[in-house]
Structure formats: C-alpha cells, structure tokens
Amino acid sequence: MRALYPGSFDPLTLGHLDLIERASRLFDGLRVAVLQNPLKQPAFPLEQRLEQISAATAHLKGVEVGSFDGLTVDYARTCGASVILRGLRALSDFEFELQIAHTNKSLDPDLETLFLATGVNHSFLSSSVVKEVARFGGDVSHMVPEGVAQDLRRLFNRPSPPG
Fold first, then answer.
1. In contact, 163 and 153? CB cutoff 8 Å
2. Active site residue 105
3. Which of 10, 61, 103, 159 is the most buried (most CB within 10 A)?
C-alpha cells in the first residue's frame, strides 16, 4: 500500500520528518509531495523545498519526493497512492483536516485519509512558527533538520549559532 503526504513544507520541520519516518515504516511506499499553491508566497522556492526534503529523508527506504499542483486526489491517483497521510498537532487542526478529508472522500471514494498524531515533543511546531523564530534571529536547530536551519539562516541573513 502506498501513501501520499502532501503539504507546502515551507520549511520542512522535525514534526514533518517525524511523521515521514513513522509512515515509512507503515507503508510499502510513501510519496512526500510539495503542493504548489499559487495563493501562497513561500519563503523557499519549490526546488529548494524538494532538495530539503530529499536530503532529510535520504536515510529512509521507500520514500519518494515530488511536487504537484491541482487537486490532491488527482495527484494521489497519478502516483498510485490509496492513502493520504495528514498530521495532527492539536485538536484545533482536526476540524480543518476532517473537512479536507471529507472533501477528498467525496471526490474519490476509494481514497482514504489517515491521521497521525504528531509526537508530543514536536506538537508546538509549525512552519510559520519556525520562520518567525528564524526571522528574529532565534535558534531553530531543534525545530528543523540541520540543512533547513542553514537555509533559514541564509534566508534571514543570520549567523550560525556558536558551538
């Protein structure tokens, strides 16, 4: 069984990576796909986000990285996924994610959505929070993979932390 984990991943956080690692053990194949959303202005260009995810998941078997635009259900069919993976950090995520899951089910009744709870140690993380901390010079090394932390420091013209 193959799963699709879609998102903007701008940037990839350790919470995302935790879900990817756990899902890679649950499924025969996992496609992590960056949605190209024309309504959002990402901090990192698409190619850089793909590289960040590829580097952070290189140690995992069965994980592929790609991108798409349009409907998630259409992309799931294209890549042979029968499950859409979504992470839940808090109860506040559930209402929105459930609405999306029901919408996707109405568009493709054969496609299932699986929710995985984010690990407690990553439950506070969001890409928006990470960018905000990095923008103001805070250390994000405990929030994102090292390569992403370096990219954020470059993006916001911040020096590397000491040590």
1. no
2. no
3. 10
